[in-house]
Every structure is written in C-alpha cells, then in structure tokens.
Amino acid sequence: MYEAVIGLEVHAQLKTQTKAFCGCMTGFGKEANTQACPVCLGFPGSLPVLNEKALEYGIKVGLALHCQIQKFTKFDRKNYFYPDLPKGYQISQYGLPLALQGFLTIELKEKKKSIGIRRAHLEEDAGKLIHQEGCSLVDYNRAGIPLLEIVSEPDISSPEEAYEYLTSLKSILKYLEVCDCDMEKGSLRCDANISLRKHGVQELGTKAELKNLNSFKAVRDSLTYEIKRQTESLEAQKPILQETRLWDEVAGKTVSMRSKEEAMDYRYFPEPDLPPLTIQDSVIKALRDSLPELPEALKKRFVSDYGLSAYDAGILAAEKAFAKFFEDTVKFYPKAKIVCNWCIGPLSYELNARNSSIESLLFTPQALSSLLQFVEEGKLNNLAAKEVLAQMCNSGKPVEVIVKEKDLLQVSDTQELEGIVDRVIAENAKSVGDYTSGKGNAFMFLVGQVMKASKGKANPKVAQDVLREKLKVKNP
Ligand code: ADP
Ligand code: MG
Ligand code: ZN
Fold this sequence. Notes:
By secondary structure, the chain is an alpha+beta fold. The protein has helices at residues 52-64, 159-175, 216-235, 281-290, 295-306, 310-317, 320-332, 336-353, 365-376, 382-395, 399-405, 414-427, 429-436, 441-453, 460-474, and strands at 2-13, 68-69, 72-73, 76-79, 89-92, 99-107, 112-124, 128-132, 135-139, 146-152, 188-198, 208-213, 243-248, 253-259, 269-270, 277-278. A hairpin with a 2-residue loop joins strand 8 and strand 9 (135-139). The relative contact order is 0.09.
C-alpha cells in the first residue's frame, strides 16, 4: 500500500595528510589533542587556509558521481554550540556547494537503477567527545579534518537499495583513494531520511531522519524498522512527525531524539576568512583525465577481456585491490576463469576467516599463480591446494616449501594407489558387499576411504579408476 522514499546523507572523511584549513596532521589513533593548533581550535586571530588536496579530492568524487562541478563556490559558517566544536561554528558549503546534480548507478537483482546525487560539498569535522563516569573528555584531533558530504535525491525505494547505494559509493571512494571508508573509525558516516507515501502519489510524505548508524547493516535494519513503524502509524491514522530519530542497535528500534520544533537554526552566513573559489575549466579537465578506471568500467572490461560472467566480474571489481590482485595473477596464469574462481572462492574465504584484506596478504599474485600451476600439473588436488592456500595466508611461504613441509604432493602413481586401494577393500568388506549387490552409494564411500587413507593426497580421478578396476576383478 505504501512505498518507501529514502534519501541518504553520507559524510566521507577525505584522506588528506593535513586538515582542511590548517597544517595539523590527520593520522588516526594519535594521543588526544596532539594534532590541534590555534586554527582548528578557533583561537581569536587565527586564519584558515584551504587545503588544496581536499578541494581536489572533492572534485574527483564529484566527477566520478557525474556531478556538475561548480566553477564558483564558497564557504559558509554553520553556527551552533557544542563542546566538540571549539570555534562555535563549522565551516561548510551551504549556498554554493562544490558539486551538483550527479547520479550513482546501483545494481539490483534484475535491473540497474540510477540514484540522483543532489549535491556534494566540503566541510570540516568536529572533535570527539568521550563520556566517562562523572565527566566528559574531548579530543580535538579530528576537529578540522576535511569531510565531503554527499547528499542523494530521495530516489532510493528500499533498505536493500540503500545498502547497495552505500556499497557502490564506498567502492568508488576507495577506487579514487580519497577515503578509507572505515565506518568503525568514523571515516564514513551516514544519516538516512525516510518517509512513506501511497503508491502512485507524487508528493513526498513527512520524513524522519535516522542517526547513529554505525554500519551498512545498521542503515538497512533501521530503515526496515522505520518502514514498519511509519506504516503502523499511518494505518492507525496517526500522522508522521518530522523528527530526528536514533537507531538503538541493541533494542533493534529507532527512538525519537528531537522534533522539528526543537531543530536548530544554524544562522548560516558566508565565511569571511576564506575567499570564494573560482575553479578553472583546465583544473577540472586535468582531474577528470586523472580519474582511475572506476568499478563499473572495470567490470565491463573484465566481462569483455576475460569472458567472465557479469556476476563474477562484479564481485572482482567491487574492490580495487582485489581486482588488481586478480588481474596481476592472470598475467602469470592466463586462465582467467580459474583465477577468478580461486579469488572469489577459497581466497575470499581465507580472507574473511581472518577478517583481513587483500592489502595485507603475505603472498604475491605470482605465488597464487604457482599454486594454480601445481594444480594444473596434477601435483596437488583441489583439497590439498586449498590447504596450501590457507598456509600461504598464515605464513606467506612459497608453495613448494609448504607442499614439502606438509607432505601434500598429490599421489597420481597407479602402483602407489593400488596398495592403498587394496587395504581399503580389505578393511571395508561390508561396503564392498553393498557395492557388488548394486548399491551405487557404496562406491563413493569407498573413494572417500581411499582419500582418507592417503591423507587427502590421492588424485581422486586416478583413485576412482584404480578402485573401479579392483572391484571389477573381485566381482567381474
Ligand atoms: P534537511 O533540510 O532536513 O537536511 P533536505 O531537503 O536537505 O533535508 O534533504 C536531506 C536528505 O533527505 C536528502 O538526501 C533528501 O533526498 C532526503 N529527503 C528529503 N525529503 C525527503 C522525504 N520527504 N522523504 C525521504 N527523504 C527525503
Ligand atoms: Mg540534513
Ligand atoms: Zn590545526
């Protein structure tokens, strides 16, 4: 009966070495208040100077999101009082933002969908409050770090689409190398706006803004909850209030934080200490030319260059470093489909199990290629190769060394296998009987026993051949 209307506001911390308007460093996890100066602490008489890198990064994101980069842009002061904001205002771009009217394409099960980007603008981060028993502490290391706020149009229609939007956006930001996108460290933050309307109605309903969303999952879950809450409210003829709500992860629900009446008036006015910016076409062009191949394009290329399915290509291209690892491996072992299967299968499995990323891998694409070569030459069966891969992830040792240490070399030698098969047949009279009386399952059981007796090293195909022959002799 109702459809959800969702718009997301994402704050991406730009990965510059120094802060947005001063020379303070931006490193994460440093001792509190060791990265702060009169400018970012707002001492009287100090003057901000724009970090050119932050502007450059902002323009790059704008371009990657197909926005129109504004040739004339300026900064404003957003005034409010809060202890994490030493100046009493945040420098932001209100009236004339850096980028307008772009879009981001997301991929859904059956179709692609384009989500409008309303605007992207630069601003600065606030400090961090740390609440303790009886007192609160404040760390200004983060105050003044450049942020890019990316605001979508209310084009998103479900929690799943919101999740996809964030996944695609993160992928782009990481490809551009402008943001770490680590939600746990706060380098990517998201507020979600949601309203409902009856199907077919154009007009937007009253929205709630959801905050305190610490993961993509929290965004999806809170939106799912909010759809249910708003639906129930509308069905009971109770109007939706325009308000800001907090997601309570533990309780699995949103709670009201403040209503429209309590909303702050920020008294925006132009920042007098920063001159407006005129951005030259040549600058925009140079940045456009410098953009790397982005996930969508890379995915298409993987399909056409390597004959991969769109699904496989999509998984590989989602993460730049992962895509590169795949492509570098193919240079050494040019069977793309096999490399792809190992990357999105066993390799991803090992990375997930260790909660680690491809960047911190202890071995090179060339090392993976030699593992695949071992398999191709029949020196390792698949099971043993997976074991070697796990060891490579643990120690980074070369394939040959692990194979020797763990004694994993595949046994394809018929004579050697005959001995094992004889033993298995002798020890499993019942299954052999089952097999001869026509129970097909018994064969696979016996194969399993041979694999086990060989400690997983038997070449499964040769083992089956030998076993079949031996059983034939027993029961011609
Ligand atoms: P605010 O002034 O409260 O920040 P904006 O109009 O600037 O609201 O929009 C902020 C975000 O909320 C945008 O992503 C926009 O797409 C989304 N949005 C605006 N109105 C609605 C609505 N009625 N329902 C859902 N999302 C909305
Ligand atoms: Mg807003
Ligand atoms: Zn500073």
